[in-house]
Design a protein that fits this description.
It is a single chain. With 257 residues, this protein is an alpha/beta fold. The termini are far apart. Helices cover 49% and strands 17% of the residues. Helix 1 runs parallel beside helix 3 (76-95), helix 4 (111-117) packs across helix 5 (145-153) and helix 9 runs antiparallel to helix 10 (222-236). The protein is built from eleven helices and ten strands. The strands form two sheets. Strands 1-2-3-5-7-10 form a six-stranded mixed beta sheet, sandwiched between helices. A four-stranded mixed beta sheet has the order 4-6-8-9. It binds 4-(N,N-dimethylamino)cinnamoyl-COA. 4-(N,N-dimethylamino)cinnamoyl-COA (DAK) binds next to helix 2, helix 3 and strand 6.
Length: 257
Amino acid sequence: MSEKLIDVVDNAGIVRLTINRPKALNALNSGVLAELERVLVDLEGHSDLRAVIITGAGEKSFVAGADIAEMRDKTPMQAREFARQALDTVKRLEALPVPTVALVNGFCLGGGCELALACDWAVASDNAIFGQPEVLLGVIPGFGGTQRLPRRVGPAMAIDLCTTGRKIDAQEALRIGLVNRVMPQAELEDYVEELSQQLGSNGPQSVRAAKQAIHDGMDQDLDSALALENALFALCFAGDEQPEGMSAFVEKRKPNF
Ligand code: DAK
């Protein structure tokens, strides 16, 4: 039987997805994208999901982009269909109701950077390399990069990266706000374990509500977004988590969510 292109490990609702094409630096071919979509559809129905971590197999690369060899001979119609499928998949990842973390362990280029941009967090190893080098190949980002990158780092830096195709290191990625944390590679796994425990021990409904308020609010004017926050805040008082969290504080114990 052929090896799976996406490994899935579920640890009490903290689900880790590993893109498994290390010989091709985990480049996204149509097989990987189709499998990723199937996995994400399954996760949409996972009622105890708490967080999703996505990474690449091996120590060299998160994802080195869309598969160039596979893309090379596409017609415009095929390219459009390929990009449309990928856009849908990336959108599914972005729309998951729980925090998503890109664990960037090396090259994070082209479609790989676009995948990381669809996650709520990016945590990078200190040897990670980022970039949108599509113009060096005669194309532009096709998995949402021209839209999500300026929203994350601002239009000036997005135009810099998308028109020069230059690569940046993890420290520059941190400085421009493309990633949340940079860790020495040897400490990356321990950090992710700690982060997983923290995300897993917080109130799952309030974590989801915080994500929803931020994501949905970003697309609205401030007054509508504040009304959304107000509604979600009130909703927190309708569940089990708020009484438990506040009672635990008053009783000087850890909450049990
Ligand atoms: N695609 C296919 N294979 C790749 C690959 C990629 N993106 N990146 C690396 N590989 C393969 C290499 O071909 C090599 O395979 P073998 O020769 O061993 O069979 C293997 O991975 C190891 O790579 P290297 O030998 O090159 O390793 P190095 O350490 O020397 O260099 C590198 C690492 C990451 C600097 C280099 O591999 C590289 O520059 N890779 C390409 C990076 C890149 O340009 N990425 C962006 C891809 S374009 C669109 C839809 C989508 C997109 C655009 C438009 N529409 C439909 C409109 C998205 C485009 C992209 O993502």
